[in-house]
Design a protein that fits this description.
709 residues, alpha/beta, polyphosphate kinase like, Endonuclease, Chain A, 3 domains, 10-stranded mixed beta sheet, 27 strands, 36% helix, 21% strand, globular
């Protein structure tokens, strides 16, 4: 067993950023899995590219900022920012090589075998196809383009973040004079995928940049095109918002958002084989280091594959769609308030529909007995029915208070639009607390009833977003518990008026004492284990990188507490360390749905407690955000959550288990039937929806806490 002061040793921790790269590899493995339908593999490859874009704009950018500021403090794994960047350079180049190897060697040939050909170079076009492409350019593309040249009178133009562009070297006709640099942006307002005419059942596609490159000479009529190649840059989007200095937070965020388009360039993607003279100009003008240049053998920006996934006529190459099922306790047309009064209701998305959450706001908006609605919004969909319902409630004279978190990264502009719309409708809009992001998911409805005022509350692990609720796995709770209702009121009073009650009943909040609560619960299991009592922890989350939490887990595991962690993404904890983490397992599940729920189980000497919440075990969630952890008290609902955890621990198809060397491997399936938790939840939800009684349990087997030991 490690000495007490050894648990903080950097050798016991993995670097956060390198752990994230391993996560993107797990997503990439789905794209490489030949047992998965072909178009689903395209989708997963697209996701890896989207993930990598955001990782560069935020995490790599942040490390570069640290290096530039001469910040030299090591992370929990003992790595300084410059060392992390050096290791990431190698790891990400390997990841990108594997992305394009997967695309070129596996996906493209299989697409061709299934009747879909992607033209890689415009030189491959037949004469008929070339004529079509040229007409398409002149009629649809040419009017939209703005070619830009670089010379003594025209400085290097602004190349916008994440845009796809084509760079060229041009020379005056006749071969006289020096070569000039020119660039044109591939317009995002046009479809990047263009379908070519076909005389049989096969289909051919060409990418818009190939069409533009073929017709570059039409943009520079007095010049010869010496060479032309696509390129794309990524800029630092980790912008600092000066909240303390801002008289109006909304205006301050609108101001800094404009800077995101011209932050420092941190990655340059170019077509492999780009002319060295052209590459030199880009490198010098963008002030970008050689290590951040990625020479791509294939189409730049693989997020285009998500558009390809959406092509019609290829449903046979996709997994069958799943329709979220109704909740048996909430039949269509029911009065939600009547049903909630009968007992707490647990929602499991996307297996069960998100519609009850929307209906909760809609019914409250129309109900003459409802006096007030209060809600936090972090990320909402583009055409949110919840926003419309809140606006309707205000128009109907309800007291509506909405906290819109303007600092939700990459959703800032969207949330500014919603905030202004809600204010216009008469809602009282709060923009969050200075220095903190409000990440909790809570709705409070105050209703006048015969026996007095009653408070109805929805608490969730995911955003109030009807679109992502079909893709993300999350847990929701509808309750009219008096204790939780009082706490919910206190939450909103704290957010709107900075007043904190002296006593809280059932909810635990970050950054106030949520971290201490988790540390207490983990340490309680440690103490029970030392006393020879039953001790067990199961925790499901997106990321685990808080050093204090990991140290507490090590201490508990070292004395015999069995700890099973289900961590989708980043995990800085190491398993299999002798005397430290031999009793700890970590698994990550990557499937058709994004694992997003946070569920925490503590054995508590056979009086098990189970909690759900909005927070991961990360410093930012526990120390710099407003988060809520809520208990599940109803025995039947606790049993359902135990069943969910048990299925996730049984998964041997989509789970990858962390190894002592830091790698992830699929579980050994020898002698075991294949089991996929997400497929099981879909099947159960369909069966469960057929049961009309509110006390219906899981459709298959029921798991008791003993199942976990």
């Amino acid at each position: 067993m490690a000495e007490k002061n050894e648990y903080g040793d950097p050798k016991y921790y993995s670097n956060r950023e390198l752990s994230w790269v391993l996560f993107d590899h797990r997503v990439l493995n789905e794209a490489r899995d030949k047992s998965i339908p072909l178009f689903d593999r395209l989708k997963f490859l697209s996701i890896t590219a989207s993930n990598l874009d955001e990782f560069f704009m935020i995490r790599v950018a942040s490390l570069q900022d640290m290096v530039n500021a001469k910040y030299d403090k090591p992370d929990i794994a003992g790595l300084k920012p410059a060392e992390q960047l050096q290791l990431l350079d190698k790891a990400i180049h390997q990841l990108v090589e594997l992305q394009y190897s997967t695309y070129n060697r596996s996906l493209v040939p299989q697409l061709r075998q299934n009747g879909l050909q992607v033209i890689r170079q415009h030189e491959e076009l037949t004469e008929e196809e070339a004529d079509f492409v040229d007409r398409y350019f002149e009629e649809n593309v040419y009017p939209v383009l703005t070619p830009m040249a670089l010379d003594s009178s025209r400085p290097f133009p602004l190349i916008r973040n994440k845009t796809l562009n084509i760079a060229a070297l041009v020379q005056k006709k006749g071969g006289k004079g020096e070569m000039d640099f020119a660039t044109v942006q591939v317009p995002g307002v046009l479809s990047r995928i263009v379908q070519l005419p076909s005389h049989d059942k096969s289909r051919k596609l060409i990418l818009l940049e190939e069409i533009i490159e073929r017709n570059m000479h039409k943009l520079f009529l007095n010049y010869d095109i010496v060479c032309a190649h696509p390129y794309r840059i990524m800029r630092n989007a980790d912008l600092t918002i000066e909240e303390d200095e801002a008289a109006d937070l909304l205006k301050e965020i609108e101001r800094v958002l404009k800077k995101r388009q011209w932050g420092e360039a941190i990655r340059l993607e170019v077509e492999a084989g780009m002319d060295k003279r052209l590459l030199k100009i880009l490198r010098e003008e963008l002030h970008i280091d050689e290590s951040y240049i990625y020479k791509i053998d294939g189409p730049l920006d693989l997020t285009v594959l998500m558009k390809m996934y959406g092509l019609e006529g290829f449903d046979h190459l996709k997994s069958p769609g799943y329709t979220p099922q109704p909740v048996p306790q909430l039949p269509a047309g029911c009065d939600l308030f009547d049903e909630i009064r009968k007992g707490d209701i647990l929602l499991h998305h996307p297996y069960q529909t998100f519609e009850p959450v929307v209906d909760f706001i809609r019914q409250a908006a129309r109900d003459p007995e409802v006096l007030a609605i209060k809600q936090t919004l972090y990320r909402v969909s583009g055409n949110s029915p919840i926003i419309k319902a809140l606006a309707l409630a205000a128009e109907n004279g309800k007291q509506v208070t909405v906290l819109v978190e303007l600092k939700a990264r990459f959703d800032e502009e969207n949330n500014i639009v919603w905030a202004k719309m809600l204010e216009k409708a008469g809602c009282h809009v709060i923009y969050g607390l200075v220095g903190l992001k409000t990440h909790c998911k809570i709705t409070l409805v105050v209703r006048r009833e015969e026996d007095g005022i009653r408070r109805y509350v929805h608490l969730g692990t995911g955003n109030y977003n009807d679109a992502t609720a079909k893709l993300y796995t999350d847990i929701g709770l509808l309750t009219c518990s008096e204790a939780i209702g009082e706490d919910a009121t206190a939450v909103f009073n704290m957010l709107s008026g900075y007043s904190e009650p002296l006593v809280w009943n059932r909810l635990s909040l970050a950054p106030l004492w949520l971290k201490d609560k988790f540390l207490y619960l983990i340490d309680r299991e440690r103490r029970y284990a030392l006393e020879g009592r039953p001790a067990r922890i199961i925790a499901k989350m997106n990321s685990l990188c808080d050093k204090d939490i990991i140290e507490a887990l090590y201490k508990a595991g070292s004395v015999g507490v069995k700890i099973d962690l289900i961590v989708r993404g980043i995990c800085c904890l190491k398993v299999g360390i002798r005397g430290v983490s031999e009793n700890i397992t970590v698994r990550s599940i990557v499937g058709n749905f994004l694992e997003h729920s946070r569920i925490f189980y503590f054995e508590n000497d056979e009086r098990y407690e189970i909690y759900c919440g909005s927070a991961d075990w990360m410093p930012r969630n526990l120390e710099r955000r407003v988060e809520i952890l809520f208990p599940i008290d109803n025995p039947d609902l606790k049993e359902k959550l135990v069943h969910i955890l048990d299925c996730l621990l049984e998964d041997n198809e989509k789970a990858a288990v962390l190894q002592p060397d830091g790698s992830y491997e699929h579980p050994d399936r020898r002698g075991k039937a294949p089991f996929r938790a997400q497929a099981e939840f879909c099947r159960e939800a369909v069966e469960y929806a057929g049961k009309l009684t509110s006390d219906a349990g899981p459709a298959t087997r029921t798991f008791t806490p003993e199942t976990h030991r």
